[in-house]
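Budget justification note: compute hours in this period were largely spent on complex prediction jobs such as the one shown. Inputs:
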Amino acid sequence: MRARRWRLIGFLALLLGGVAFAFGFPAFASLHATIQLTNALALALFALSLALVWGFGGILCFGQAAFFGLGAYAYAIAAINFGDTTFAWPTAILVPAAFAAALGYFMFYGRLSDVYLGVVTLTVTLILFQLFNSTAGPEYRIGDARLGGFNGIPSTPPLNVPFDGRAYLSPESIFVIAVLVLLAALFGCLWLLRTRFGRVLVSIRENPLRAELLGYDVRVHKLAAFTIGGGMAGLAGLLFAQNVLVNPALFSLLYTAQVIIWVIVGGLGTLVGPILGSIGLQYVMAWLGTLGWINPNLALGVILVAFVLFVPRGLWPLLVKVVTHGRRLVRGNGTS
Amino acid sequence: MTVAPILEIRKLTKRFGGVTAVDGVDFTLADGELRCLIGPNGAGKSTFFNCLSGQLAPTSGAVHLDGHDISGWPSHAIARLGVGIKTQVPSVFDGLEVRENVWLAARRRYNAREAKERCDELLTRLNIQSLAAHMVGELAHGQRQLVEIGMVIASDPRLILLDEPAAGMSRDEVARLAALISEIARERSLIVVDHDMRFIRMIAETVTVFHQGRVLIEGEVDKVLADAMVKDVYLGKQVV
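Corresponding output:
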């Protein structure tokens, strides 16, 4: 009963704190800081998508960047062709989700083992990287949108007021949307994991054979989780694309590897951890980049190794452990 | 009056390359019957068991369960037909609590409220209610076996397949398990694979002996265990 009450208080605090932060931060921070944090939130949503797929579905996907990149391209192409970003939202979610469903069908129904699944997802991502890199000519266009090869689609439209393609939203409004979308995704994942589907998904991560012997179709559950994760990564791609630009680098090894590191550092098997890990590491990387004497990617590798060796469960479980231990100590002192 | 069979197996064969692990086995289990499968290591019991549970697809032959030909069906589809399966090595959800392990098993068949009631009832019946909030990974081997048995019966299956349920259990635990299995057998059909002859004597009325992938003999437990051929097969092991 007490645990349930604390959980409810935690959810409410997170929700109210998040909403207050969404509206409060742009009022005090500079425009540059607001835009930078919007990017970080988009990438945090990207990390959350892998946290669900890998941390709870047990699917080690080395190609989450494929869905991120597809979401970004789908958004840009739809926004340019419609002249309005309203319908670009569902497009950016459905295209990568459909791609994840098709890819997942062959992987899960083909009963690929975890190692091959990692190899296939990584290979597909690199194929997409090569594919979009070789679309430089004017003949590579979808409607009015030129794919632009290596340079991508630099004139990606920012978000606009629904059904009014000329009324672009301000960076502050887009920041609010990014926070709310991330919160909605987080609460959506928390809800999903409390449903029967979510509990079965976790049981499949723990022991797929036992789940199968209980009568649960492991393939269907994994495919559904993979598809939802693909749609979430696509949504992250949308938020990133409308703020920055769209190019084949979104499918690159950099994004593929970074998102895995964010999840490990934040805490595999948690949802909040990868969000914090992603945002924290992005700021650390940006700061290291300003120093000039150290390669940020090398530093990221060192951070990963340090976490794997000394904090293998990640940042968030460590934080929870410290707080729980602290509360026990306080309670012990209070009663003695 | 003869009881209609729940399980009918005809000419079941499973080959791994050049090795024939199960060789044209015919087997029938009456509805409500408890049958033990015994045999020395490598006799083909586990392969036969895995063909029934869907973990292996038979090379040839037919497995009929309640009138459905389930040969080659995936495990989840066989489980949904009302078959509860316990594997040789305890197969549980180590990272989840005991309660959730049993709840997940019950939830496949029942709604959330019924599954919770069924889960509480089983934890009490198995005398593991004090372990309900423990992670299964933290439990001793015998306790994990009990959790798995709880998971197997949680969805109220008509046929239960138990592969070496008494392995690694203490004498007391084996006696309790035997009592539990006898109780379960009043309502359901069971196939139990085991090596422990004391345990077999506690629960079985009829036994099928496997040897070199074939059925060597089957019949009443006392007659079968007294058979010279069976003693021979166990190569000097005392069949008490």
